[in-house]
Design a protein that fits this description.
CATH architecture of one domain: Orthogonal Bundle
Low-confidence stretches: none
Protein name: MoxR family ATPase
Strand order of the largest sheet: 2-5-8-1-9
CATH class of one domain: Mainly Alpha
CATH topology of one domain: Helicase, Ruva Protein, domain 3
InterPro entries: ATPase_AAA-3 (IPR011703), CbbQ/NirQ/NorQ/GpvN (IPR050764), ChlI/MoxR_AAA_lid (IPR041628), P-loop_NTPase (IPR027417)
Organism: Marinicauda pacifica
Largest sheet: 5 strands, parallel
Mean pLDDT: 88
Distance between the termini: 18 Å
Structural class: alpha/beta
Number of helices: 14
CATH superfamily of one domain: Magnesium chelatase subunit I, C-Terminal domain
Radius of gyration: 21 Å
Order of helices and strands: HHEHEHEEEHEEEHEHHHHEHHEHH
Number of strands: 11
Shape: globular
GO molecular function, one term: ATP binding
């Protein structure tokens, strides 16, 4: 991707201003979220890329707190849906009710559901039935929903940050591949390190608990998303992405371990996600253009939910994270 000198200069100035604003945003998040620097960066990269994120972690590792904090810092109005087996699509999208006017005429009025916000938290998304999970598909992909044949546009920007507990699997419905592919990244939220947990205990059990403050606005988020798409991607970085995708697909990979152990690989949407995410990561770190190091860093979050190992490969002890990390290192 090439740009003129004038455009490059203007783009660099925009990127410098954006980097300063994003540094403020990260500093605000750090007041409420301790130690999860990489997780926070990946979540912000999802928003800057205009996508949706799947947060996976054990109970109590601050997934919910992170989403609420991001909503505060980005200035996006947020709503939360607790997914349960009895949740229905109308509980997410909204429904039409029959009303009778003063003149006796009856008409339907649409009552919007919680999906009509800018940052939706889908808590424990895998606890809802496939029918209810599918209700989010159109909203996540197209930015609007259809109720009774009528289109209703969602506000912009619109992002879904869903949470999932990898431990409890009873009473859950694994997300279908089509919906998983709608998430730009799967962000693993780990247990805190000892020093971070010490800081968490001191900060959250006293009289004063740190709180984030609003830094950005919805319009700034849209501007930043436009900037991310305008950032140049070098030929070396682009080739690294293409090589990684080729190596991760069993039909085209030269790697025997992939051909024999991977049931299906990432589709074109994975490449689009990587192209956006590496730019967002570079901007968050104050750089104008991404590098192959960004591709290696984000290969796992972008690909792990878009690939599946065969039963035999899992039985042999093959780990998807390890495989993706090796493929990314080879591609870069």
């Amino acid at each position: 991707m090439t740009v003129s000198k004038e455009d490059a200069h203007a783009l660099a100035e925009r990127a410098d201003r954006a980097a300063d604003r994003l540094a403020e945003a990260k500093a605000s998040v750090a007041k409420a979220i301790i130690g999860l620097n990489e997780v926070v960066e990946q979540a912000l990269a999802v928003i800057l890329s205009g996508g949706h994120g799947l947060l996976v972690g054990a109970p109590g590792v601050a997934k919910t707190r992170l989403v609420h904090t991001l909503a505060t810092v980005t200035g996006l109005d947020d709503k939360r849906i607790q997914f349960t087996p009895d949740l229905m699509p109308a509980d997410i999208l909204g429904s039409e009710v029959l009303e009778e006017g003063e003149d006796g005429r009856r008409s339907f009025r649409f009552l919007p559901g919680p999906v009509f916000c800018r940052l939706l938290m889908a808590d424990e998304i895998n606890r809802a039935s496939p029918r209810t999970q599918a209700a989010l598909l159109q909203a996540m992909q197209e930015g609007h929903v259809t109720i009774a044949g009528e289109r209703h546009d969602l506000p912009r920007p619109f992002h879904v940050l869903a949470t999932q507990n990898p431990i409890e699997q009873e009473g859950t419905y694994p997300l279908p591949e089509a919906q998983l592919d709608r998430f730009l990244m799967q962000i693993d939220v780990p247990y805190p390190r000892r020093e971070d947990e010490r800081a968490i205990l001191l900060a959250t059990t006293g009289t004063d608990e740190g709180e984030a403050h609003t830094v950005l606005t919805g319009q700034e988020i849209l501007d930043l998303q436009g900037l991310v798409r305008a950032m140049p991607v070098g030929e070396e970085t682009l080739e690294a992405i293409l090589t990684l995708l080729e190596r991760a697909r069993p039909d085209t990979s030269p790697d025997a371990e992939v051909r024999e152990g991977v049931s299906w690989g990432p589709g074109p949407r994975a490449g689009q996600a990587l192209m956006l995410a590496v730019r967002a990561r570079a901007l968050l770190q104050g750089r104008l253009a991404p590098s192959t190091a960004d591709v290696a860093a984000l290969a796992g979050p972008v690909l792990k939910h878009r690939m599946a190992l065969s039963f035999a490969a899992r039985a042999d002890g093959l780990q998807l994270d390890t495989l993706i990390a090796r493929l990314a290192a080879e591609a870069a």
